[in-house]
Design goal:
single chain; mainly alpha; Arc Repressor Mutant, subunit A; Tetracycline Repressor, domain 2; about 75% helix
Length: about 220
Protein backbone atom coordinates (compact mmCIF):
# COMPACT_ATOMS: atom_id res chain seq x y z
CA UNK A 1 0.00 0.00 0.00
CA UNK A 2 2.86 2.35 0.86
CA UNK A 3 4.49 1.79 -2.54
CA UNK A 4 1.18 2.49 -4.25
CA UNK A 5 0.75 5.79 -2.38
CA UNK A 6 4.31 6.78 -3.21
CA UNK A 7 3.72 6.00 -6.88
CA UNK A 8 0.56 8.13 -6.84
CA UNK A 9 2.40 11.04 -5.18
CA UNK A 10 5.17 10.82 -7.77
CA UNK A 11 2.66 10.79 -10.61
CA UNK A 12 0.86 13.83 -9.16
CA UNK A 13 4.18 15.66 -8.77
CA UNK A 14 5.18 14.85 -12.35
CA UNK A 15 1.85 16.19 -13.59
CA UNK A 16 2.27 19.32 -11.48
CA UNK A 17 5.80 19.89 -12.78
CA UNK A 18 4.62 19.34 -16.35
CA UNK A 19 1.78 21.86 -15.92
CA UNK A 20 4.06 24.46 -14.34
CA UNK A 21 6.56 23.95 -17.16
CA UNK A 22 3.90 24.50 -19.81
CA UNK A 23 2.66 27.65 -18.05
CA UNK A 24 6.18 29.07 -17.81
CA UNK A 25 6.86 28.27 -21.46
CA UNK A 26 3.66 30.04 -22.49
CA UNK A 27 4.41 33.00 -20.22
CA UNK A 28 7.89 33.33 -21.71
CA UNK A 29 6.43 33.60 -25.22
CA UNK A 30 3.80 36.15 -24.18
CA UNK A 31 6.21 38.30 -22.14
CA UNK A 32 8.67 38.41 -25.06
CA UNK A 33 5.96 39.20 -27.62
CA UNK A 34 3.89 41.67 -25.57
CA UNK A 35 6.25 43.02 -22.95
CA UNK A 36 5.58 42.72 -19.24
CA UNK A 37 2.96 45.48 -19.00
CA UNK A 38 0.78 44.24 -21.85
CA UNK A 39 1.16 40.56 -21.02
CA UNK A 40 -2.08 39.59 -19.27
CA UNK A 41 -3.02 36.29 -17.70
CA UNK A 42 -5.75 35.66 -20.29
CA UNK A 43 -3.16 35.68 -23.08
CA UNK A 44 -0.85 33.40 -21.12
CA UNK A 45 -3.70 30.98 -20.43
CA UNK A 46 -4.64 30.97 -24.11
CA UNK A 47 -1.04 30.28 -25.13
CA UNK A 48 -0.82 27.44 -22.59
CA UNK A 49 -4.17 25.98 -23.65
CA UNK A 50 -5.64 26.18 -20.15
CA UNK A 51 -8.01 28.44 -18.22
CA UNK A 52 -6.88 31.48 -16.24
CA UNK A 53 -8.11 29.96 -12.92
CA UNK A 54 -5.80 27.01 -13.60
CA UNK A 55 -2.81 29.35 -13.74
CA UNK A 56 -3.83 30.83 -10.39
CA UNK A 57 -3.62 27.37 -8.86
CA UNK A 58 0.14 27.60 -9.36
CA UNK A 59 0.92 31.34 -9.46
CA UNK A 60 -0.98 33.88 -7.36
CA UNK A 61 -0.12 36.89 -9.53
CA UNK A 62 1.54 37.84 -12.80
CA UNK A 63 4.48 39.09 -10.73
CA UNK A 64 4.90 35.64 -9.15
CA UNK A 65 4.83 34.07 -12.60
CA UNK A 66 7.43 36.47 -13.93
CA UNK A 67 9.59 35.91 -10.86
CA UNK A 68 9.49 32.14 -11.51
CA UNK A 69 10.86 32.81 -14.99
CA UNK A 70 13.63 35.07 -13.74
CA UNK A 71 14.75 32.89 -10.86
CA UNK A 72 16.69 30.18 -12.76
CA UNK A 73 18.82 32.80 -14.53
CA UNK A 74 19.57 34.78 -11.36
CA UNK A 75 20.29 31.69 -9.29
CA UNK A 76 22.48 30.16 -11.97
CA UNK A 77 24.74 33.22 -11.88
CA UNK A 78 24.91 32.86 -8.10
CA UNK A 79 25.96 29.23 -8.47
CA UNK A 80 28.54 30.05 -11.15
CA UNK A 81 30.11 32.79 -9.04
CA UNK A 82 30.01 30.53 -6.00
CA UNK A 83 31.99 27.91 -7.91
CA UNK A 84 34.58 30.55 -8.79
CA UNK A 85 34.83 31.54 -5.14
CA UNK A 86 35.44 27.92 -4.20
CA UNK A 87 38.22 27.65 -6.81
CA UNK A 88 39.81 30.80 -5.44
CA UNK A 89 39.63 29.45 -1.89
CA UNK A 90 41.46 26.33 -3.09
CA UNK A 91 43.94 28.52 -5.01
CA UNK A 92 43.21 26.69 -8.25
CA UNK A 93 43.70 29.74 -10.48
CA UNK A 94 47.17 29.99 -11.96
CA UNK A 95 46.64 33.41 -13.55
CA UNK A 96 44.33 36.38 -13.77
CA UNK A 97 43.60 35.47 -17.38
CA UNK A 98 42.20 32.10 -16.28
CA UNK A 99 39.97 33.83 -13.75
CA UNK A 100 38.65 36.37 -16.28
CA UNK A 101 37.99 33.53 -18.71
CA UNK A 102 35.90 31.78 -16.05
CA UNK A 103 34.11 35.00 -15.19
CA UNK A 104 32.99 35.57 -18.77
CA UNK A 105 32.05 31.90 -19.10
CA UNK A 106 29.95 32.12 -15.93
CA UNK A 107 28.04 35.17 -17.11
CA UNK A 108 27.53 33.67 -20.55
CA UNK A 109 26.26 30.41 -19.03
CA UNK A 110 23.56 32.32 -17.15
CA UNK A 111 22.61 34.20 -20.31
CA UNK A 112 22.40 31.03 -22.40
CA UNK A 113 19.98 29.32 -20.00
CA UNK A 114 17.26 31.68 -21.23
CA UNK A 115 18.51 34.54 -23.43
CA UNK A 116 15.19 36.39 -23.66
CA UNK A 117 14.66 36.16 -19.90
CA UNK A 118 18.20 37.46 -19.32
CA UNK A 119 17.40 40.48 -21.47
CA UNK A 120 14.09 41.05 -19.69
CA UNK A 121 15.81 41.04 -16.30
CA UNK A 122 18.22 43.75 -17.45
CA UNK A 123 15.34 45.74 -18.93
CA UNK A 124 13.46 45.56 -15.62
CA UNK A 125 16.47 46.81 -13.71
CA UNK A 126 17.27 49.60 -16.16
CA UNK A 127 13.69 50.94 -16.39
CA UNK A 128 12.78 50.61 -12.73
CA UNK A 129 9.95 48.17 -13.42
CA UNK A 130 11.11 45.98 -10.54
CA UNK A 131 9.91 48.68 -8.14
CA UNK A 132 6.41 48.50 -9.65
CA UNK A 133 5.99 44.80 -8.88
CA UNK A 134 4.42 43.65 -5.64
CA UNK A 135 6.67 44.20 -2.63
CA UNK A 136 7.34 40.53 -1.95
CA UNK A 137 8.56 39.83 -5.50
CA UNK A 138 10.52 43.06 -5.94
CA UNK A 139 12.27 42.52 -2.60
CA UNK A 140 13.28 38.97 -3.54
CA UNK A 141 14.56 40.09 -6.95
CA UNK A 142 16.53 42.98 -5.49
CA UNK A 143 17.96 40.81 -2.72
CA UNK A 144 19.08 38.09 -5.12
CA UNK A 145 20.56 40.57 -7.58
CA UNK A 146 22.36 42.41 -4.79
CA UNK A 147 23.74 39.15 -3.43
CA UNK A 148 25.20 38.25 -6.84
CA UNK A 149 27.01 41.58 -6.93
CA UNK A 150 28.32 40.98 -3.41
CA UNK A 151 29.73 37.61 -4.47
CA UNK A 152 31.25 39.11 -7.63
CA UNK A 153 32.96 41.77 -5.54
CA UNK A 154 34.27 39.09 -3.18
CA UNK A 155 35.68 37.18 -6.15
CA UNK A 156 37.44 40.30 -7.39
CA UNK A 157 38.80 41.19 -3.94
CA UNK A 158 40.16 37.68 -3.40
CA UNK A 159 41.71 37.65 -6.88
CA UNK A 160 43.48 40.92 -6.07
CA UNK A 161 44.71 39.62 -2.70
CA UNK A 162 46.09 36.49 -4.40
CA UNK A 163 47.96 38.64 -6.91
CA UNK A 164 45.97 37.32 -9.88
CA UNK A 165 44.63 40.66 -11.09
CA UNK A 166 45.82 44.22 -10.65
CA UNK A 167 44.64 46.20 -7.65
CA UNK A 168 42.06 48.93 -8.34
CA UNK A 169 38.72 50.18 -7.04
CA UNK A 170 36.58 47.06 -6.57
CA UNK A 171 33.17 48.71 -6.98
CA UNK A 172 34.19 50.47 -10.17
CA UNK A 173 35.74 47.33 -11.63
CA UNK A 174 32.64 45.26 -10.76
CA UNK A 175 30.42 47.76 -12.59
CA UNK A 176 32.76 47.84 -15.59
CA UNK A 177 32.88 44.05 -15.92
CA UNK A 178 29.14 43.53 -15.59
CA UNK A 179 28.27 46.59 -17.67
CA UNK A 180 30.59 45.45 -20.45
CA UNK A 181 29.05 41.99 -20.59
CA UNK A 182 25.44 43.21 -20.51
CA UNK A 183 26.20 46.00 -22.98
CA UNK A 184 27.63 43.57 -25.53
CA UNK A 185 24.60 41.30 -25.14
CA UNK A 186 22.24 44.20 -25.78
CA UNK A 187 24.25 45.56 -28.70
CA UNK A 188 24.47 42.24 -30.51
CA UNK A 189 20.77 41.53 -30.01
CA UNK A 190 19.89 44.94 -31.42
CA UNK A 191 22.16 44.40 -34.41
CA UNK A 192 20.85 40.87 -35.00
CA UNK A 193 17.19 41.96 -34.92
CA UNK A 194 15.30 38.67 -35.36
CA UNK A 195 18.35 36.44 -35.73
CA UNK A 196 18.77 34.11 -32.75
CA UNK A 197 21.39 33.67 -31.51
CA UNK A 198 23.09 36.90 -32.58
CA UNK A 199 25.71 36.08 -35.22
CA UNK A 200 28.64 37.96 -33.70
CA UNK A 201 27.84 37.58 -30.00
CA UNK A 202 30.35 34.80 -29.30
CA UNK A 203 33.27 36.40 -31.13
CA UNK A 204 32.59 39.86 -29.66
CA UNK A 205 32.50 38.47 -26.12
CA UNK A 206 35.79 36.68 -26.80
CA UNK A 207 37.42 39.94 -27.91
CA UNK A 208 36.13 41.67 -24.75
CA UNK A 209 37.38 38.79 -22.62
CA UNK A 210 40.89 38.97 -24.10
CA UNK A 211 41.05 42.76 -23.72
CA UNK A 212 39.97 42.63 -20.08
CA UNK A 213 42.25 39.69 -19.30
CA UNK A 214 45.27 41.40 -20.85
CA UNK A 215 44.48 44.58 -18.92
CA UNK A 216 43.81 43.04 -15.51
CA UNK A 217 46.18 40.09 -15.39
CA UNK A 218 48.75 40.95 -12.75
CA UNK A 219 51.29 38.63 -14.35
CA UNK A 220 51.30 40.67 -17.55
CA UNK A 221 53.19 43.46 -15.79
CA UNK A 222 55.93 41.18 -14.47
Amino acid sequence: MTKHKEAVRERIQRERDRRIGSILEAAQKVFVAEGYTKAIMNKIALEAGITKPTIYQYFKTKDDLFFALMLPVIDDLRDQLGAMEAKLASRKYSSGKALIRDLFASARHSYEIAPETFLMIQHFQETGLVGKMNEHVSTQLNDRGRYNFVVLRRVIITAMKQGLIKTMDVDELTDVLWGLFVGIIHLEHVKAQNRRPPKYLGTTLKVAERLIADTLDAGAAK
